Amino acid sequence: MLDIKLIRENPDRVKEAIKNRNLKLDIDVLINMDKEKRQILLEVEDLKRQRNLANDEISQLKAKKADFSSKIASMKSVSQKIKDLDSKVGELDKKIAKIVLNIPNIPHNS
């Protein structure tokens, strides 16, 4: 099984290997799914960063005995979005793995 990074960095080599083995696989679909997954992961990481900052703010508000209920309510929606995006990443991982398993190894030049 080829590494997705190799496919991402050398799509022409992989396409040539597929062509030489007379297979019909669309590497562009795989590359687009990988790109979408990486974009979602960036968004998830940003949301997690926001959630962590909010947790720190909530801790500070608790220490001051201030009201923090509005902050918690807003973070619930962020947590749900993170959960939804993580689910989407999992689905993309499965699809990507299924495609990658069908990609043949790149033959040696000799």
Summarize the structure in words.
The protein has 110 residues and is mainly α. Helices cover 78% and strands 0% of the residues. The chain has 4 helices and no strands. The protein has helices at residues 4-9, 11-20, 27-63, 69-101. Helix 3 (27-63) packs antiparallel against helix 4. The two termini are 20 Å apart. The mean pLDDT is 90.
User: Looking at the structure, what is the overall shape?
Assistant: rod-shaped
Using the CA coordinates, give the radius of gyration: 21 Å
**Total strand segments:** 0
pLDDT under 50 segments (min length 5)? none
Number of helices: 4
| Sheet of most strands | none
> Pairing-aware structural class of the strands and helices?
mainly alpha
> How do the helices and strands follow one another from N- to C-terminus?
HHHH
Give the N-to-C terminal Cα separation: 20 Å
DSSP strand content? under 5%
User: Helix share of residues?
Assistant: over 70%
Mean pLDDT: 90
What labels describe this entry?
110 residues, mainly alpha
What does this entry show, briefly?
This protein has 110 residues and is an all-alpha fold.
SSE order and pairing:
Elements: H1 4-9, H2 11-20, H3 27-63, H4 69-101
Helix pairs in contact: 3-4
